[in-house]
Amino acid sequence: MSNVLYAPFSYSKIGTYNQCAKKFWYTYVSDIVIDKVGSLALERGSFVHYLLENYGSSISKLTEEFNFTYMTEKDIISTIEQYTLFVDKFKYLVESPYLGIETKIGLTVKIFNLWGLFFNSVLL
Prior knowledge:
Layout: H1 11-19, H2 21-29, H3 40-53, H4 59-65, H5 73-95, H6 101-123
C-alpha cells in the first residue's frame, strides 16, 4: 500500500495544486460535486475542437452526435462555415509541394492562432 495520498500524480494535478491548494482539495480530495457553468463561447470552442478531432467525418453526423446546450442553429451554421473555410486553407497549405516541413509547421501554428483570433472576433 502506498503512503502517498492522491497518487498517481499528473501534470494536471500538480498544476492545479500550484495554482491553488484549495482548488486541488475541491477537485481531487473532497466529495463535493461542483456543477460546471457553461456558456455559448465554451460550447462553440468545444464544438470546433470536436470537428477538428474528427476531421474527415461527415459534418452532419458530427452535428447530430454533439450535445448542444447553448448554440442556436444560426451559431452552428456559422461555426461550420468558418470551420470549412479554415480546413480548405489548411489543406492547401499542407498539400503544397513548394514548402518544406519546417515552413509548413511554422505556418500551421500561425494559421491556428490567427484563425482562433478571427473565429472569436467574428462569432462573439
